[in-house]
């Protein structure tokens, strides 16, 4: 039996997929409002997501620049 807090715990892997997906969309020219994306997240989750989002944006920019 899982404890409720463990059942709803967020892992860093959850944010990798989301952050990468949104970074790809942004790199394709889609307007994204990170405040809207992170609006329901608690502070820890918001920081984790934004760190990953920024990292993926930089990686995508570097990949485009070297291509």
TrEMBL record:
<dbReference type="InterPro" id="IPR036295">
    <property type="entry name" value="GlgS_sf"/>
</dbReference>
<dbReference type="InterPro" id="IPR015065">
    <property type="entry name" value="GlgS"/>
</dbReference>
<protein>
    <submittedName>
        <fullName>Putative glycogen synthesis protein</fullName>
    </submittedName>
</protein>
<dbReference type="Pfam" id="PF08971">
    <property type="entry name" value="GlgS"/>
</dbReference>
């Amino acid at each position: 039996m899982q404890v409720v807090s463990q059942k709803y715990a967020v892992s860093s892997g959850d944010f990798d997929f989301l952050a990468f997906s949104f970074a790809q969309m942004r790199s394709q020219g889609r307007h994204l409002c990170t405040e809207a994306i992170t609006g329901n997240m608690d502070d820890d989750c918001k920081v984790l997501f934004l760190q990953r989002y920024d990292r993926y944006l930089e990686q995508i920019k570097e990949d485009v620049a070297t291509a």
